[in-house]
Amino acid sequence: MEAVLQTKGLLSLPSNPKLRVFNSQQGLRQRVSVQKPKTLSGLSLPLNGFQKFQGFVAKPHDFSRQNRGFICRAEAAAAADGQPLFAEPEKPKIFGVDSSTLKKIVPLGLMFFCILFNYTILRDTKDVLVVTAKGSSAEIIPFLKTWVNLPMAIGFMLLYTKLANVLSKQALFYTVIVPFIAFFGAFGFVLYPLSNYFHPTALADKLLAALGPRFLGPLAILRIWSFCLFYVMAELWGSVVISVLFWGFANQITTVEEAKRFYPLFGLGANVALIFSGRTVKYFSNLRKNLGPGVDGWAISLKGMMSIVVLMGLAICGIYWWVNNFVPLPTRSMKKKEKVRMGTMESLKFLVSSRYIRDLAMLVVAYGISINLVEVTWKSKLKAQFPSPNEYSSFMGDFSTATGIATFTMMLLSQWIFRKYGWGVAAKITPTVLLLTGVGFFSLILFGDPFAPALLKFGLTPLLAAVYVGALQNIFSKSAKYSLFDPCKEMAYIPLDEDTKVKGKAAIDVVCNPLGKSGGALIQQFMILTFGSLANSTPYLGGILMLIVLTWLAAARSLDSQFTALRQEEELEKEMERAAVKIPVVARDESGNGSLANGPALNPAGGESSSSSPETTPRNI
Prior knowledge:
Elements: E1 3-4, E2 20-23, E3 27-31, E4 57-58, H1 74-77, E5 93-94, E6 97-98, H2 99-132, H3 140-166, H4 169-191, H5 195-198, H6 201-211, H7 216-223, H8 225-253, H9 256-285, H10 297-326, H11 344-353, H12 355-385, H13 389-446, H14 448-456, H15 462-491, H16 498-531, H17 534-580, E7 585-588, E8 594-596, E9 616-618
Antiparallel strand pairs: 1-4, 2-3, 5-6, 7-8, 7-9
Helix pairs in contact: 2-8, 2-9, 2-10, 2-13, 3-7, 3-8, 3-16, 4-8, 4-10, 6-7, 9-10, 9-13, 11-12, 11-16, 12-13, 12-15, 12-16, 12-17, 13-15, 13-17, 14-15, 16-17
């Protein structure tokens, strides 16, 4: 059979179609010869389009209504010579997901669970070590974050950059994660049991006597340096293994479509890991109850938890090896995107020049400062209530479990909040939670005595009540941050023009994130050195917190009005674009190629109809 398709009205075919005739009983009959039309993408055939084909002529042999063997598909027509004529067999699916996709997503989910399971154990343990150690307190945390954690993080990233230039991706992964696993195993079984032999306790005591109690925090870093090293390694596990290794690997092996579908599920899975790891910390922390007198229960608990960390770390390495050897990886384009890089001064100038970016920056900085101000003060009261490492660790296990449950619930509710109340309400929930719980927390610390008789009826002391309120503040503020604050921050970039969007995000990443994280620590260091201790600084820290949160709420309100205006402007532009679209017409030129007609042909209502015109055919958009 021979057939000729002329291009009157057929605009969805590619520029070099090769239509194939296929009979289900007799196989391939003949090839269809086609003229080469020029195409216009984005246009579709009307429902009665085939009735308008004036040039379709076919010979009737071997082709009948009873034996419909003619298959014409735009996708098959676009295939080059030598491609298979039959469609590829459909890939096997499990629960509606391709098996090849599950071979990537399930191992990634397990790897993410193991990484976050370890991170929760390490995060709870690091606070127990540095806060409850003899000669230390919660005052060590701001100094530790600024003068130890930050320099080591910078040094590690410089080393990582150099290693990335000389090692393969797999070698780099193992080179980074294996030292973490080895250190945590060695700490539980070697460094902690022998810590009394190499900690310079006598030197720290002499320096403290000479300098005074206001230098307790800085000197504690020297006194318990191995615990501080554990603190830094635990912090780096969160930033390096989660952010760099895992997400880098996930982005390497998944496609964009897979990421859109499955990445949100990783967030829910993270909170499931938080719940289980919190129970694990609770279990090992309570082991001391079954031990005899004179036994270091915390050392036993630490060995058990570090053993699990090592086993989970080895499982991560095993999963990584299996994926690299047995899962086909997607091919990537070698074309690189240009990334806007802004220095610190350029970032500051850009932040100052835009009111919208200033308000967005205030949200980021205010959260970082606020959460640090409350968290360190709360941990100092937590040590006063639970001085034993096992009691402190047991409480932190319950805290982690509660945080996982609250965040999981808030993530499920966040979509409803965005849909019903919009961006503005969602953006104000996190600072409102911090404000209300912060007022309750600092009120119980500063004015707890008048509340003592009422609290006693519930079996609580002002200190224990402050610990519980501080725990609620941390739980709800973190769950609101993960489920509402982070999505609000990213959504705020969407209506901006491309230049402002890219430069604004670069400016906030360079300036505001580090300022928010270190700002609270610097404020606390100044207060401690000025007033002598964290307890003496509490009234001033409470006042600073209230001021920052109120400024945060004002910035959120201002940003909401600007965000709403930009969204309305964007919607109006889209409506105008849709209303301004005209119906294009394809005309045949002398060479037989299709082209857009000009003049009266663009208005079929003012001229001949498309069915009667031999030269033009109106199309639907």
